[in-house]
Structure formats: C-alpha cells, structure tokens
Amino acid sequence: MRLTRLRSVIAAVAVCAVGSVGAVTAVTAASAAAGCSVTYRIGSQWPGGFTGTVDLRNLGDPLDGWTLTWSFTAGQQVSQGWSAVFSQSGAQVTARNQSWNAGLGTGAQVSIGFNASWNNSTNPAPTSFALNGVACTGATTPTTAVPTTAAPTTAPPTTAPPRTTFTNPLKARGPDPWLTYYNGYYYLATTTWNNTITMRRSRTLGGLATAADTLLFTLTRPNGAGTMWAPEFHLLDGPNGRRWYFYYTAGREPFDLGSQRIHVLESAGSDPMGPYTFKADLLDPTADNTWELDPGILQLNGNLYLLGTFYNGSQPMFIRPLSNPWTASGTRRILSTPTYGWETVGGAVNEGAEVLQRNGRTFIVYSASHCSTPDYKLGMLTYNGGDPLNSSSWVKSSQPVFQRSNANGVYGPGHNGFFTSPDGTEDWIVYHANSSAGGGCDMNRSTRAQKFTWNADGTPNFGTPVPLGAQLAVPSGEPAA
C-alpha cells in the first residue's frame, strides 16, 4: 500500500527476581539496552556435585546474541553445560548463546543448565546476574543445600530443545509484508521505500525478527527506479517452467505517485531468494492512464489473474486477466468499490487484495480506508461462481473481518498475506500494524503474524490482532532451529 497519499527430585530452590533496565529499539547485542528476569534452580545434588538451571527472560530490547554472567559465592565450579557455552574464571561464570538460541526477543525466555561441584556444606544461589554486561537488579534468596540424590549416571541433554513460543513483531520496520514457508524456511519481504528489493529467511517464524535482510535486486529502470512497496512472490508455472515471480510497485525517482506501476521479476530457479532478473512492466494494455498499486495473484478455474488498485476519483480494487505470469491478456475490470462507511475513513480505499482458498472456496481479503488512519482494516469478498472478472461474481461482507484493537494496542492492521504452518495443518495471517493511534502510513509499521481459524460456514475467522510481546505458540511442525 502507499506510504503517503493527501499520507523456562528438587532438593532446593533459589529464585533471583531481577528487574528491567531500560528499553529502546535495537537488535544487536552490542547496541541493545538490556534488562532481564532470572529464575535459578538447583534440580538435584549429590556428594560433590549438583545440577543447576537458569531461566532467563529478556526484558530489554530484542537481542541477536547474548551473554549472561553471575558469581558463585561458595567455591562452586561449573564442569558441564547445555543450551549455552559455559566458561568460568574464579567465581564468575559466563554463559554465551549457541547459534540456535542467539535471537532473544523482548519478553522471550531461554533456559540453560549445567553440572557443577560444591563443598558439601553450603550451596547458596549465585549473585550479580548481568545480561550483556548490564547488571540485573533484584533480591536473591540463598539456600543451604543437603545432599539428597546420587550422582546422575547419564549426561544432561546437549541438543537444542524446540522453541514453543514466539513474539511479534517479526520485523520492526516492515510495512506491507509478504511471508511464505517453503522447503524448511520462512521467507519475508516488505516495503523498502527505496530502490532495493530485500528478503530475509529463517528456520523459525520468531527467528525472522533477527534475520538479516538480503539484497535481491536493485531497481534501475527509469519508469521503476525506486519507491518500492507492496512486494509479494509466487511460485507459478510459466512458459519457462516453474519459477518464482516477484511482484512489486515502483515508479520514477524522485517519488512521483502518478508514475507508480506494477512490475515483475523472474527467478532463475526454485530458490525464493533468486537470483532474479527483470521480466516485465505489468501495465494495462489499453488503459495505462493512472497509477496502479499493490499487486496480488489469483489462480482460479485454471486461469491466472492480477489484482490491484488504481485511482479513478476513489480507490477501487481491480482484476486483470493474465496469459502468463508477466503478460496481461485484457484490460482491468473493477471488482470492488469502497462504499461502506468503514471503507472510507480518511479516504475511500480498497487495496492490498490477497487470495485465500480452502475446500473449494475462494476469498479475496483486502485493506480498506486510508493507511494513515488507525481505522485501516480488512474486508472480504467471497466468490460465488461465474466469471471472476465480473464484480457480480463476488459478494462483499458487510462488516470488516479484522480491525483495530484499542485494548491490545494495535492500530491500522492491514495489508496482509497468508501462509500455512510447516506441517500444513494451520493457517496463518501476516499483516502490518501500528502501536499507537497516531501511527502513520510509513516505515514504522511492523510485521506481525498470528494463527487464524475457520467458522462453521467455511469462512475464515481472523479473530482480534494480538498485542506486541504476547507469547504465541509457534506454527505446528516448526523445527527446533
């Protein structure tokens, strides 16, 4: 969509309650503000040794790499650890992340464990916990330990336990997201608002938050040189075989709204990250007389169609037939016009059309009202048979299907996409939103995802947008790393 327009047999337990130390937006261990809560447990102990566990929760900025330190006060010495790389110098223990748990979002938790020696007399809790060098504050309850169990006969686990939850956002500056799961990875592309096309990937959904963006393509053609927004990529059959087709909106530089058009790249093979080459400008063959935005792809009854939005005094949704993934075979036809009051807040807008298909039914979920308002929201069309090019073949829902939640602090949720869980049993929605009612139509909108369900009548139930930082179960079938 447009960024501008008019726009973790217990013998003893010791708990360390640790407070927050600041919070600003950052993603690297070197620059992120730290804050943590820690729960320390002695799981079992025997003459000369014990097993300890530390549950660390990040209360500061998202981290891409972390180090937790503490000090033992009674000569305890770590001999073996898991889920972190341990070292000890004198009384101080250092636990550094492993590759699979380096990313630690705000509110996220990781559990680490170790075997250590003790003096068979006292085994008090550690002191001076610190995350990435920043001291965590709070009270420590010491404990006097008595040997209660025999030494363990097997080594503790050394493989990564699967993550069970993640938190939003998936990308702090990620408007107009498109996300898919393919061959063991999640892939995410968002608006860049410049002349680059980028994509990030991760084995886990939550890992997208700290994944690096990879440059896929640089725009250079005069009529599509910059201001790239609303990307999405589809694996389609074409004359050259099965390829990824990357659709996007771009125009002349400096920014000229009137020149914004839909364009498409083609991959060299089956990797969503390319390489890509420019394929075509997806212009209307007979009415290239206004801007066209927000490409979407519909496959229905063996035919291929382009969805989008354009300007004709208001901003309706259009559909155009395609003969292949990059060639129009007819002019645009109006599919939906913004007429309901909830579609016209700040401007009469139907845009960002995305297709959802299940059990033989086809839906188009679109964004309504102006993107600069907190009332940007999702509406839905339902296909009722007939020629998909005719608006009469589609029925518009009279009420929005996904909208702002003041209680959850989510405003302007829209420009969505859909993806399935790794095992194919769950349906998920990805979208962007603001965290304040005053948020605008700009790069500060963040990428978020959540699972949705289906009503008894076969229609989707998207529920309510969840608050940032809420612990959500990971998609079904997601690997450990």
Q: Could you tell me how far the N terminus lies from the C terminus, measured between alpha carbons in angstroms?
A: 33 Å
Oligomeric organization of the protein chains: single chain
Overall pLDDT confidence: 87
- Using the alpha-carbon principal axes, give the shape: elongated
How many DSSP helices?
Answer: 0
Number of strands: 36
Largest sheet: 6 strands, antiparallel
Radius of gyration: 26 Å
| Spatial order of strands in the largest sheet | 6-10-3-2-1-13
Structural class: mainly beta
Uncertain residue segments:
2-31, 138-147
Strand content: over 45%
Helical percentage: under 10%
Explain this structure to me?
There is one protein chain. With 481 residues, the chain is mainly beta. 0% of the residues lie in helices and 46% in strands. The chain is built from no helices and 36 strands. The protein has strands spanning 12-18, 36-46, 49-58, 63-64, 67-71, 77-82, 85-89, 92-96, 103-104, 109-117, 127-131, 134-135, 138-140, 165-166, 178-182, 185-189, 196-202, 214-218, 226-238, 241-251, 261-267, 276-281, 292-300, 303-310, 317-324, 327-328, 333-336, 350-358, 361-368, 377-383, 394-396, 411-420, 427-434, 446-454, 460-461, 472-473. The strands form nine sheets. The chain has a six-stranded antiparallel beta sheet with strand order 6-10-3-2-1-13, with no helix packed on it. A hairpin with a 2-residue loop joins strand 11 (127-131) and strand 12. Residues 2-31 and 138-147 have low confidence and may be disordered. Residues 145-170 are annotated as: Disordered. Keywords: Glycosidase, Hydrolase, Signal. Residues 1-26 form the signal peptide. Residues 29-139 form the CBM2 domain. Belongs to the glycosyl hydrolase 43 family.
